[in-house]
Give the backbone structure.
Amino acid sequence: MSKYWVASHITGIFTIDDEAEDYIYKGSRGAGFSINRGTTTWIEESDDSKNHIFFNNREVSPDQAKISNHIMNHYQKTGGKQRDKSSGVSLLHEFEVPMACGFGASASGAIGSCLAFNEYYDLNFPNDIVYNLAHSVEVEYGGGLGDVAGVVQGGWEYRLKPGSPFIGETRNLLKNNFKVATISFGEITTRSIIQSNYWKNQINKVGELFLADLFNEPSISNFATVSKQFSVTSMLATPEVTEIMQKLEDSEIFVGQIMLGNGVFLIYKNRSALSDLDDYIEEEICYKTIRKYD
């Protein structure tokens, strides 16, 4: 059994950089962080010689799991000849975060799938090839733009150049004693935003402005500040996000919107600052973002 755990990733500010012809050069510039809730992915030989995909113990159709299905088909064409063609596989994901809520679940699943299939078929592809595929399929199907690069970098990071890991340019913000929590109010379909010309123009116009500020001062507090400005000015902020931002306007908490999702991340130093809030989850920043099970 080939099994991997991959951290989740949250973006606070971004641009859409999709002009290149090759998916490995497309992506986003922006900033975000990885957390210690993630996705466990593994592969088993199926009992009925057919392929199956499971999300949290529930079987889903290929149309409901286009990224996972694409990766499965790619690796079976590449490495399936090394196994009995009559045998199918089951690709299983266990998600510790809500899906379609801006936690990068599809990217975590894509990375885990690529690593697991690479091992399952004994292909020994180097990491740059594996991550290129995860990133490319993410971008192609509208799952995300910069999550794969962000996860591979780990921790608090900012992305200076778009593209897959080893192609784009990603750096870490300085570590300090800030803590983070999240509140999720529900879903936003990433594809509906990043593949819309209206939203692309809106996001890029505002994103360029605030990313310039962040790149000049790449600190966690400045990341939180520009993330809030970005979500409000771009009009991506939902009513629920706007309400909690207004509620915490004069508090010690920095508030940003989880991109792309209907939720917020809260950056703070003292846990007591969260005392007036409900339904939040305290997160841990993750630096070792990819782990293989023995």
